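Quick one: structure for this chain?
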Amino acid sequence: MKQKYLIDTKENKLFLKEMSENLLNFGHQFPAPDGTCYYLGDDGTPWKSYNRDTFETCRMPHVYTIGKYLGHEGSEELIDAAVKGLCGAAKDKENGGWYSSITPDGGYVDNKLCYVHAFVILAASDAALAGHPKGEELLQDALDTYDRYFWNEEDGMACDTWNTEFTELDSYRGLNANMHTVEAFLAAADVTGDERYRVRCGRIIRHVIGWAADNEWRIPEHYTSDWKPDLECNRDHPDDQFKPYGATPGHGLEWARLIIQWALSTYKKDDKKADLYIESAEKLFDRAVKDGWNADGEPGIVYTTDWNGKPVVHDRMHWVLAEAINTSAVLWHVTGKQKYAEAYAEFMEYLDEKVLDHENGSWFHQMDCNNVPGNTVWPGKPDLYHAVQATLIPYYVPDLSIAVAVKEEKRILEK
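Got it. Here's what it folds into:
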């Protein structure tokens, strides 16, 4: 195993640093004239015939806020472009909230998604952190809109989908939006100091842990309006981009890291309480890796499995690998268990040999079961967010949102 794959080596830190800079360079062409985010193609050039998704317009100021505090040239201009998009074309000034997507002809996709509004909170938190003149106003607007339409105080969870006018609420409930709500609320709490958002994260997390524990640590993703798991959802469309059938190992990994972040930021002076959540995070990680990694004789983590852990969609998504890297590193630093360092090294080797595009830049977003790049779910390379975070989270403190940790230079102390 090469030194550059091993956690806590200088070679690995250099590998991640170089990758981070390359990723930040890759995304420079994202801004459309209105500030929304063009869909980036295989070499980073815009695919202008694609919709401009608001969640990507949100991810870019997150990425380039991090870039600003890493000293990446041009970051502030890119943050400003995306904030322009979120305050302008992506904003529904008639009905409130944010459109889910802007079409190439300047129209919009009908609906209002919790998933998107969670990312607006994350982007606005970053804009405020970066000192953008519209950052604090945007963040307050995002939080107010979310509280009005998506957060359900009685359930301690968020709903999912409204119509464009916010007059009809879909009966579907889902954990993907709630997972990114936890991420966004943790960032908002770190930036504003308003701890009620961290408290809300705890309520969501306790629900998720309960559902996972009752299901052998395979997290049910889809629910009815009264929060009963719908385990058959999308059985006939198993590779849906946002609502796939079955268990999603990548979400088990992502939840595990977010649970650790929440627990360590909440129980800093009470290790025993934090330990209970870290144990749950370990179970989620272990289940995801056991079910998903090398499940069909090839390296990589399969996209989905059935409820017995058998692969359903064998393709490997780049974001899943990013979360595997993040969570194995965090668990290594938090628990000291060697198995997490070993898993991290395997993921790093796979990244370098299969998923990194050494010719055109960034990471291939989708690989098939033979680790050949595919495009059925994620064509092109529009997403920098997961990959950039995976170059940083392994060496920054696990109890802070990553943009805050980078700004404050809160790295994990050398062992």
